[in-house]
Amino acid sequence: MEEVIIIGGGISGLATAYFLRKRGWSPLLLEAGAAPGGNLQSRQEDGYLRDMGPNSLMLKGRIVPEWLRELQLEGDIVEANPLARRRYVLNRHRQPVALGPGVLFGGGLLSVRGRLRLLGEPFQPPHRTPDGEESIADFVRRRLGEEALTWLVDPFVSGVFAGNPARLSVQATLPRLAALEQDGGSLLRGALRARNRKRKLPATPKTRLVSFREGLQVLPLRVADTLGDTLRCDTPVDQLAHSGGMWQVGSGNQTWQSKRLVLALPAGAAARLLAPTDATLARELEAIPYPAVGSLSIGFQRPQVEHPLNGFGMLIPRVMGLETLGVLFSSTLFPGRAPAGQVLLTAFIGGSQNVLAGRDDDDLLATVLREIGPLLGISGDPVFSRCRVWPKAIPQYEIGHLDRMKRIDTLSAGHPGLHFRANWQGGVALGDCIEQAWEFSQAANWQH
After folding, report:
1. What would the DSSP string read from start to end of 121-137?
2. In whole angstroms, what is the distance from residue 447 CA to residue 393 CA?
3. Exposed, middle or buried by CB within 10 Å (0-12, 13-18, 19+), for 274?
4. How is the chain split among helix, strand and coil, in percent rounded to 5?
5. Quick check: 202 pLDDT over 80?
6. pLDDT in tens, 218-240
7. Could you give the CA distance from residue 42 to residue 32 in angstroms, rounded to a whole number?
8. 315 - beta bridge partners?
9. First to last CA, the chain
10. How many angstroms separate the CA atoms of 81 and 310, rounded?
11. Distance between CA atoms of residues 214 and 160, nearest Å
12. How far is CA 16 from CA 60, 69, 360, 420, 435, in A?
């Protein structure tokens, strides 16, 4: 009998196994794929280094930085170029403009009326029914105005979450933003209060945007090394049952059992395993949407691109009618991502507002090149291109998500020993997954 069985070797499962081992447990981690890490995949090809899923890791607070020190990864960290603080967004004249205070004074992004509406945010009344969920679109429209939604927030939401702000819950997706209004009655007053409170607390390390010399896949591979025989890859679980207070887990002709089971899986995958045990719980999990997203790594000779590429990348508002969500200036963001004299761009396409079904890699590449070429002043064909489509990329915390999480908690409580640890709860970012795994391991029910 195993002490704990964890199914799913993405970053959530790996971090959960690591932190539970640190607490004295002996977990068994089962991963269907040949390598751990889920969508944390990096490749070196033709002198280019590309990340096919997430492209960076935000280091903030103490948990994630301390974990990297424990994993002896500090020497492999690559800091983001200071230019990454500059973010571009496409304006109504199809020109990339840098975000910042200048947006209030020009740049062709907001009209005079839009700028005045943005400046008037502190004078807008707070939400009358703060206890319910509200869409990001309604929240931003109410607090900052229609233009801020169209030209600032919508491109951010589609670029970062591949989502539709009219459907995503602000309380679930951007809880810190919603909390500012609740705390101060406005976003500005809430931010000022938060800053004043932070000044009274002990100093915390500066937030850093990082990757690793050989890409983000270094992280799951290093965790896997520390887990040793705890991790078993090429072990897809195809049977799951619960009886006599024990969970029975099967993969082919192999079986294990434990009183404690952690499903560190995408919601749909967890639903399929749980359906024979609890159809209602499975339906709740299956209802969490995951849009498809394509990640395209595209290389050019430097003279082929007129834009200085002096920033993090460029976001594209949906109102422009383009399918491309945004472009990272990858060889600017982190050094060593392209051969000398060349540049690497990473473009994203798909998401909740653009269906990718039935489209091949060549079609997606042609679409992206046709759309971003005039925007960045690109001439000629790329010297390097690769496409990776994730059919179920990022879970969407849509309106009703928080209520769904409550129902899932209630239903899962009826199955002793069952736990979930995945990015469909608690935040989709890598740092969120790691912090949630650490907090999960500290819970009272994991006292040895």
Report:
1. GGGSPPPS-TTS--BHH
2. 34
3. buried
4. 40, 20, 40
5. no
6. 999 999 999 999 999 999 999 99
7. 18
8. 89, 326
9. 17
10. 9
11. 23
12. 19, 17, 36, 10, 10
